[in-house]
Structures are given as structure tokens and as C-alpha cells.
């Protein structure tokens, strides 16, 4: 089988290099280009010595259209609003696209503009599919352009889908308390993500409904519930770990449920999913058991005293929350087995 | 002024040594004894070299009555159910007592027995006061026996008191998501608190209303609200940091409130409190800003989209959540200025 | 190709589970058994949830001879002196053996007994080969029993081999300053390896020529230098990281050398080695670039002011320093390509 | 007693704020100004919320001469070469000065210029004393201008002084392997000190005699040995901890020495020093036992097999290695008891 040619546009950040690492080890992919304006001319391994031995690639600043000319799949690991700027050109190339920015995740451009700023490519929105395979695989299969989900939304949507789909919880009682590792903040140097500022610390940020992943979470939940709109409370926190998101999600049960039944429901829902592991009853997810893997670990509990469902879900923000899911989507739209190149378990400790 | 003589019963754990550190630096205290069965005969500084230069104390296993004979104040840093066993003897000694276990925190012995096991000293319960000075200072002043609060309850009760006292929130909507540093689990070796198990990890534990601090939280909240009973959801998590608790607390507002008003309410409520710092609006607590100090940092936010109040409170679990609060209580019952020996700011980074 | 059957004796520790992780992903291996006395009957994934999805294996306590009856290769991840006790039986089985303990690393039983205690299987020593493939591949190929090297010795021997082999350094001036992650201390709970004792700390241990890896280092260096005996100073330190060893090695140069020449010498020496990466001049190893991989990263520098060579080498103590090297050895003695199952790059950050 | 007025020039970095923390708690000091160009107008507590409650100071950008007009003591926590630029003005003010930069540490301007660049205030060099009180207290007492030592040199000079002064070691065999916490790199955002780059990593830097603290170390050692010149090998490493330096120092003994004698020698040498703790034989320094304190912990061992002395010394780089030592020096030149404001023990864990 001839290898599919892939390029990463914006490969110098943590997500970009993670895409590179996974693609370099992918048996059916040839990674042909990595771009970076700032580091043009430097070997990828100069920035990321961990990749030495796996590649000789040099950062280029090739134009998107040139890349589209020679690659079969284009991964965009660019900041939001930067991605849309080159999408017009790429969309005409006929190549497959996986966009890891937020630019094409929200179906409603007005919502996008309220949270992110101007959207200049509204007409392209309809050509993208929201790439959360476990929930929307059918739609993904028939598209060529993927809007790869955000990290927090991935953990929340996978965590709530079974209960929400079955109508077991009251949608207006959903509270999401999430904690993310520092790599989620990127590699751009800033005081807030210095080692000394983060180690031995822990804090919430963007409290009170201010985080940009909220509309994406709400859009997804509403689709899962089959309703017009769901409004949630979402509080992100910064954890002193490199990778991982753990979301603790609360919702009132419509009626009493046993933990056992709920657990069975979740097990059933995800029984054919290669990347979702519903923890045995009595066992709980830990970021360290998913970091480095494409898994999402989920546990359910019932707080009988208050009638609430508590769901805990954990992912690696850079893999299932970004680069791994991007490749999972690529596998689907390229007709490869969905798990190809993504089967590594977490390395512990 | 003659120095008050203090002894620590059960001084080999993290809380015990933290009491020792603070008492050794306290200008009006002479620490005359530290006990430990396991380490009898060893210098305190052998276990805790950080204290070298400050003390020559040797762990003894003196009997409680002997200690009561020579000390003015007794601190008990023992596991629950061990504390009550020696309390009968101590209570007759006429000495002041600060108990850091859970044994005398719950006014209702039946509740204690549901969560902890048998209580053999029920008749002593009434002689203890729940030692959270910011909320119950009046009662503390007139007592000699302190039941020193748990770490999670301290962070929660200080966080909710202003809003709950004013009737601003619906008591049945309270959800508490708390994260604690590893020192809260003590110094007894166990796989779960090994460096390799904790570093780069994050997990919830005792999910679904199973943590023993729940009845203590609910007892305190009910008192603050002036109602019979409040039931909450409480989920603790284990953070990869040495010290600190951060609680993110959610509750539905009875009616719309502005963040500014709420902030003023909190500022007012705590304006004379030396150990509570209400963060400036727009600023949020971080464990690293309270670790090493007796401060509780609190921030309030309103999630307008959902009508919820979000309170975030942070303390050092070993200081404001244990040893520091114990000394604060001792200062009160011994007639010393409440802040004596407790004024250190956090060391950052 | 039929898969080779492997069993791990003593699989509940960090090294044992790392062997399991690597073997489960190895394309030519079928892992048929993992043993543990303490955890008999529990699934491997109960202790190590990171492996969920990859295996259903249950810890057994099958006798060594039974395992030898059905496996083609036996990995022993047991404490020293425990390993030798079962070696008599295993040695007669005709199966291939990779022993990760220290029991068969030292050719001279008297040296072993000076550092470790009694050796009851001296007659088997000659059947084992010291399994450091980059240096002794020829001998390994023709043997069936591997004494898998210690973690510190691996980092030191690979670091010094090129310079020592060429006679460039004075053997009596070698000083080795090594730092290891906490997983090197195993998973047995003890105060010293608790999170709170290690995080934010750093210390040396067994200072003054007291660490048991010294005779193994000296045996290896003497072989490389072709001399009777070499005596070194070796100081291990405990790093607050999960994995990794970094050794900074000092030795006086016999005569002046340029950094460029030395660098070329090292590049040449390791040019065909798939698992040794000599860093570009000006670049230095970091534990985080090798952790999770089977690589050893090496840099050389010359301190012109003092005429000393400084070599820095980094490995993952659980992989190149234990489980990975064990599999590398197994590949060799089983006739598989040496890199099979070991090609993953480090996951960063 | 009237309080001495102090100002900190360049107070926004980690060292500056640590000076502020210590001075704010110092019983005889009034901190009257903190300067920062970048943060002018912001409260000190906005950058460092840990200090909330202790101060209302606002960063100003007052001119040095204005500050000299109202303060009694001036602390300069500026980068090297910036400090010298304002020293001309300050030196004429008649006020006491503690300079924490490298600008006045090296007696020989030519050496300074070889390692740091131009020195424009050579004529002031003679008015400064190298402020390492344990070794040069006599000279410090009679001066008004302090060149506060570097962090690495402090750990090395205190570690070697007793042995070197007695002529027990061969000066040309000294090898220093040091590891520093990340705060030593300052608070300026850069990729290398981001959390994700440092956590779970460990590396050497400036290997091969390239670190600027080398001439300072060598100048100090030569003075201690009473010789013209000493040349050492010095390798710094970056540790994933916030604070602390641990130096492991090797040197060949001139003649055989017992550990016991050496230990006694060290104990004797430092017996009246309040801030040096020679560890009991068999016990070794740990960064976590000195972090947060002004202590230097030292252990000695003899490697009998190689005839080498091994000294291990640990300090907090921001306290004994910077701000604490600066205040210790200030206490001396202001006639205060040397330990004032510096008696806190390390907070552990």
C-alpha cells in the first residue's frame, strides 16, 4: 500500500509536534512537510530532541497552496482566526483537511463571532464536520474536512453522551469542573506557564462562564440531547502536570438510578469503541492512565443523598483532545482502520 | 510574660511536625514534649531535618496524664478513634485541649458513628467547641476544649458563609468540587501516595457522597444557614502538590446578583478577619499563594448564563486546615492575640 | 511467523509492568503469563489501569518450572538473591532467560558476595552474558542467558566506552555523578519515596562509594579499557521525576583533545547503533527526551581550563536501563531484528 | 528603636520579591519603596498575591538618587551590567548598598570583562566587600557596600572552606557538580523555563567551563586556600524544583582522612555559625530541608576506595543564595544581630 502524504501547517507548538510524533510512527503515512514561520530552516528535532532518530524534517514556510499541491492530507495546528485565513485556498485544493483550531467547530457563525471574533469564511462552515468519531462517526465518514474538537469538549461530550442521550439527566443542572495540564496553554513563553508559577500551585481561570470552549460544549450537548439549547456551568483549572484533562461532571437525575444500571448503560454505549474505556465500578480515572494514549477513561457514580449523577472523564489533551483525535479522523476519512497508529497505551509511571 | 507550656501528642506525622514548627517559632509558647510510639527516642529532627537548629526535642511516649501534668495546652494530632480513647483522662486534667482529629467535631454522636465508627466519649462532646474562629469565635472564647475543623470543611465553610448567611443561595443546589495536596493523606507509606503514583496524575476519590468530611461540612452549613439540614454533593480530588486545598463551589442564586455586590458582601463579611483575604475582582486564588500561611483566599464569581454563584477558596491544608488553625484557636482560648505566631506569608515560588 | 511465548516472573513492580507493556505491543511476542505472589488472582490492569485494553492477564503464582514448560522466553524481574533461587530450575529447562536482577551480572562471585550477600548459584555465572548490546553484542548472540545490566551502569558504560576504548582518559580520574528518577526505587511503599518527601526535593544517597552498582560499573569499565581493574567515584542522587537517569561523568584527558574530534569519535563509534544518539555539538541530553524510549542520548564536552573530558548520558531507567534493554537482548537471542517493539520515541512534554 | 528604611531597586523578579517578603517581616526594617520599570503603578501584590496582607506597596520607577535620598539601605536586584550603571550615583549618597548582581563580586576587573562584558565602574570595585559572612565577616563589618555572592558560589565556598583552609585537599582536583531549581533562571518568560519543558526533565547546561559563576568560585577558593589561583571544573544542572541548589563536590585528599575527623573538623569550623548546619554523620542534605530558610546544610564523606573527599552542600538559591544573605549582610553593616528576620526554618513538606 502506498503511503498517504501528510503535511502539518504550524508544527512548532506542542500540538504540532505531537501530530508529527504520531504521524512519523503511523504505518500508512509519510510526513512530507512541517511548517513554522518562526523556526524556518531549523530541524524539527532541534526544537524537539525527543524526535531525534525518527525524522530529518526541517521547518519550512511553504505556502499552503504549495503544500496542498503535494500532500494528500493537511493538518492545521494554527491559532484560531489564523486557520480560517488560509482555508479558502486549501478548500479548493480537493485535499483532505483536518483543522485543529476552533474556526470550524461551531456551526453557527454568530456564536463563533460572539466568542472568538470575526469569521471570514462562513461559507465554508457547512463543509466541515465536527470530528468526534465516537458520537458522529457516520457524518465524518462522508466528509473531507474535519473540525477537530477542543480538548475540554471532547472530555465532556464523551462523558455525558450516554446519560444525555437516554434522557436520564436534567439538562439545566449540568455543572462541569475541569482540570487541564499545562501543555493546553501552548509553548508560547508567558509568565503564567513558567515552571515556578505552576509547580506546587493550582487555580481556576476564566471562572463564571467565560471560557471559549463553552459554546462548543453546549452545541454538542444540545445535539446529543436533541434539543435546541443547553446551558452549562463550566470552570477550567490549571493543573501542575504536563498533559491531561480530567472533568468532573455533575447533573441531577430525572429519576433515581442505580450505579450498576448506569454503569451498564455506559459500558453498553461504548462497547465497540476502541478508545473509550469505562472503568470497572469502584475504579476511577486518573490522568496518568491516559496520558500518552488516545484513550478516554470514564467512570460514573451516583450521589444517592442528592440524586445527582457524577461522571468523571479523563483524556490526554494533546492526543484524544487534539493530535490523536485528528489522526483518528484522518484514518476514517482516508479509509484506514480507525485505530491505526493510535494503539499505544499510556506509559506509566 | 511567662511562656505557655505546650505538648503535642502524636507528633510524627505531617500535621504533628507542622504544629511543632509553628509552636517552636511562637513567641509565647514553650514546646515541652512531642510524642510518638513508633519513633520514641529519636530526635524530632531525625525525621524532619528541616527543623534542625530550632529544637533538640526527642520523641517520647509519655502517658497523656503525665503530659497533662506538666503542659498547659495539649495538642492531639492522632487518628480519629485514637483521640477519644485518651480524652477521658485528659478532660479531667483541667488543661486546655486542641484536638485535631474528627472525634469531637460532630455534635451528634449518631452521625459520628454512621461515618466513623463507635464513639466511646459521647458525654464529652458537649464540652468541645467547633474551632473555626472566623465563624464561631464567640463560642470558642468561652471554652477550653477545641475540636479543630477538618481541612476540606474549613475551605468550604469559609467560602460559603457570607452567601449562605444572607440567604442568597439555594441550599439544595450546593456542589463542592475540592482538590487537595498529598500531605492530606499523611506520612504512612502506601502505594497511592508514592511519588510515581501521584506525579503527573490527577484523580477524584470517594466519589458519590462517600467522604467523611461530608457530615462535618453539612453540619457547619446548616448552622450558618440556620436550618435543620443541608445536603451537598462533595467530590475530593488528589492533586500532585505537597500542600493546599482549592474548593470550587457552585450554588444557584435565589435571585440575580451582580458580581460587584457579591464581592462587596464578601469583603465586608471578612473585613476584620486577619486570615481571610477576599481576592480583588478579576483575581482568583491559587494554592501557591496560601501554602505555608494561615490564610484562606476567597474569590466570588457569578455565572450569569446559569444564575449560579461560584466561590473559590484556597487554604494550606496543614496550616489553616490543621496546625495553623489549631494555634489560632489556642491563641484565643489562652488570651493571646489571635494572630500570634501565624503571620508568615506564603513563600513563593 | 508464529509468536514467541514470553512470561514475566515478578511482574507487579514498575519494571515488571514496563516489560508487560512493551511485550504486549511487541509484534512477535505473545505474553502468556505474569506472576506475583502478593497480587495473585488480580488482573494486571487492576494495578496498572494504563494497560487496560491491551490485556486481560491475571497475576498468577505459577511455579517457575511450570512457566518454563510453556514459555519460550522467561523474564525475571525479581529482587537480587531471589532471582538466583529459582535459576537452578530454570537453567535446566532449555529456555531462554533474561534476568533483570543483579545476580548474574558480576563475573566474580567474590565481588558479588562482598556487595550483595551470598551467591548460591556460582556455577551458573559462566552461562550468563552481560547484556549491553552496544558493547557486547557479539557475545550476546551466542548465549541463551542474559544478565540484564543495571540502570546506572548502562548510562555510564555507554557514556565512557568510546573514550575509554581509545585510551583517551586517565582511568583513575573517573568521577560519575548520577541522578535517577524515583521509579528506580521500586513500588514498595516507603517513606522516602512518598510524593511529599520527594517533590521539591533533591538529595544524594549512598555517598562515598557505597552503591551496589559500583562493582558492575568498574567491571564494565575495566573490560572496555582492557585492564585488570578500574576504581571510580560514583554518587547517585534522587531526582523528583518519575523516570530517567542522567550521568555527568568527569575524567582527565591523557592529552589535549578538541571537542570536535571527540564528538566525531563518539559519532563514529555509535554510527550504526539504533539506540544511541550522540547529541549535536552544543546540544545536551535531557531526561525528558529519552523517557519513554529505549534511547541513550550522549553529549561530550571538553573543559579546556582543566583538561577534563565531560560526558553526559541520559536514559530511561525503566527502558534502556531495564525492560527495554531486556527486550533488546531477547530480540538478539531470539533472532529477531534488534529494534523490534522498541522504536517508540519519547513522548514530550 | 527606629526602623531602618530600605528600598529595593528592581523588585519585580523572584529575587526582588523574596527580598520584599523578608524585609516586610523584618522587625527593624521599614520597606519604603520597590521599583520596576515594567510594572510601574501596579501593586506588588498584583504580581505576587502571596504577599497580600503584608503590604500595599506600589511599584514605582523612582530614580536611584531619589531613593537614596530617603532610604537608609538600598538593595539592588538588577541584572549584571545594569547594576553598575546606577552605582556611580548611589555610591556618592553615603547610604548602605547591597548589590545582588555580579557587578562588584570580582576583584579583578579584567576577569569580570572576560566573563561578563565591559565594566564601567572599576574605581568602585575596591569599596565593595564580597558578602559571604561565614567566611569574610571581619571585612564585611567595616564596609558599607556589599557585593552579594552568587548562589552557586555560596554553596561551593561554604562547602569547601574547612577542608581547603586546612590544606587537606589537592586544589587542582576539585570538581563541582551542581543542580539548581528553576527560580535561579528568573521570571522572564522563556521557552526553557516553561513548566512543560522542565517538569519530568533534567539536564546540564553550560558544560565544559562555560558558566559565569566559575571565576567567582575560583576567586573565593583561591582566597580560602591562600594561593594565587585555583582552577575547577563546574557543571550546573537544571532541576525540576522551584528553589534550591545542591552541590556535590569532589576533591582528592592530600593524605588519608577518616570521615569522623573530617566531620569533626567541619562541625568545629561552623560551630558558631547560626546558618550553617553540618549534618550528622550518615545523614545527607536535601534541598527540601533548606528551601525557605537561610540555612546551608553540609555533609562530608570520604570515598576510601579512591581517596577522595566528597562534600555535599545545599542552600535555597533565593535566600542563602540571594535575598537572605543580602539581609544577613545588611544586618551586619547596620549593627543588627545577624540573624534578625532570618530565623524561619524550612516549611516541609
Would you kindly provide a written description of the structure presented here, covering whatever features stand out?
4 copies of one chain form a homotetramer. Chain A is of the alpha/beta class and 349 residues long. Chain A contains 12 helices and 14 strands. Helix content of chain A is 32%, strand content 20%. Chain A has helices spanning 14-24, 44-47, 64-70, 82-91, 109-115, 133-141, 151-165, 195-198, 213-225, 259-269, 287-290, 319-333; strands at 4-9, 29-35, 59-60, 73-76, 96-99, 128-130, 145-147, 175-180, 203-204, 233-238, 245-252, 276-278, 296-303, 308-315. In chain A, 60% of the residues are buried. Chain A folds into 2 domains: 4-149 and 320-333, NAD(P)-binding Rossmann-like Domain (Rossmann fold), CATH 3.40.50.720; 152-317, Dihydrodipicolinate Reductase, domain 2, CATH 3.30.360.10. In chain A, the strands form 2 sheets. In chain A, strands 3-2-1-4-5-7-6 form a 7-stranded parallel beta sheet, sandwiched between helices. Chains in contact: A-B, A-C, A-D, B-C, B-D, C-D. Chain B binds chain D through residues 14, 17, 21, 24-25, 46, 48-54, 183, 199-200, 242-243, 274, 277, 279, 283, 286, 288-290, 292-293, 295, 297, 343-349, and chain D through 14, 17, 21, 24-25, 46, 48-54, 183, 199-200, 242-243, 274, 277, 279, 283, 286, 288-290, 292-293, 295, 297, 343-349.
Amino acid at each position: 500500500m502506498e503511503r498517504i502524504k501528510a503535511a502539518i501547517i504550524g508544527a512548532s507548538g506542542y500540538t504540532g509536534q505531537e501530530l508529527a510524533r504520531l504521524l512519523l510512527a503511523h504505518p500508512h503515512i509519510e510526513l512530507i512537510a512541517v511548517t513554522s514561520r518562526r523556526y524556518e530552516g531549523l530541524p524539527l528535532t532541534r526544537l524537539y530532541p525527543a524526535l531525534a532518530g525518527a525524522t530529518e524534517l526541517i521547518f519550512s514556510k511553504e505556502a499552503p497552496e504549495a503544500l496542498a499541491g503535494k500532500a494528500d492530507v493537511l493538518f492545521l495546528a494554527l491559532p484560531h482566526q489564523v486557520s480560517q485565513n488560509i482555508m479558502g485556498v486549501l478548500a479548493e485544493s480537493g485535499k483532505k483537511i483536518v483543522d485543529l483550531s476552533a474556526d470550524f467547530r461551531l456551526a453557527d457563525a454568530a456564536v463563533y463571532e460572539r466568542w472568538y471574533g470575526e469569521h471570514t469564511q462562513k461559507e465554508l462552515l457547512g463543509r466541515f464536520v465536527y470530528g468526534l468519531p465516537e458520537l458522529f462517526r457516520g457524518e465524518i465518514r462522508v466528509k473531507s474536512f474535519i473540525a477537530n474538537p477542543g480538548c475540554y469538549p471532547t472530555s465532556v461530550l464523551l462523558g455525558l453522551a450516554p446519560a444525555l442521550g437516554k434522557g436520564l439527566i436534567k439538562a439545566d443542572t449540568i455543572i462541569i469542573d475541569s482540570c487541564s495540564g499545562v501543555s493546553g496553554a501552548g509553548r508560547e513563553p508567558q509568565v503564567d506557564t513558567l515552571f515556578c508559577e505552576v509547580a506546587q500551585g493550582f487555580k481556576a481561570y476564566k471562572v463564571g462562564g467565560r471560557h471559549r470552549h463553552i459554546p462548543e460544549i453546549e452545541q454538542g450537548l444540545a445535539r446529543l440531547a436533541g434539543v435546541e439549547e443547553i446551558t452549562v456551568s463550566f470552570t477550567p483549572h490549571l493543573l501542575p502536570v504536563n498533559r491531561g484533562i480530567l472533568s468532573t461532571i455533575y447533573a441531577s437525575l430525572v429519576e433515581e438510578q442505580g450505579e450498576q444500571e448506569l454503569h451498564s448503560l455506559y459500558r453498553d454505549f461504548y462497547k465497540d469503541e476502541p478508545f473509550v474505556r469505562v472503568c470497572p465500578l469502584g475504579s476511577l480515572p486518573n490522568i496518568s492512565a491516559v496520558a500518552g494514549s488516545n484513550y478516554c477513561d470514564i467512570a460514573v457514580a451516583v450521589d444517592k443523598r442528592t440524586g445527582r449523577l457524577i461522571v468523571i472523564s479523563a483524556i490526554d489533551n494533546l492526543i484524544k483532545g487534539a493530535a490523536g483525535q485528528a489522526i483518528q479522523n484522518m484514518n476514517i476519512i482516508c479509509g484506514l482502520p480507525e485505530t491505526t497508529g493510535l494503539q499505544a497505551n499510556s506509559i506509566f509511571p
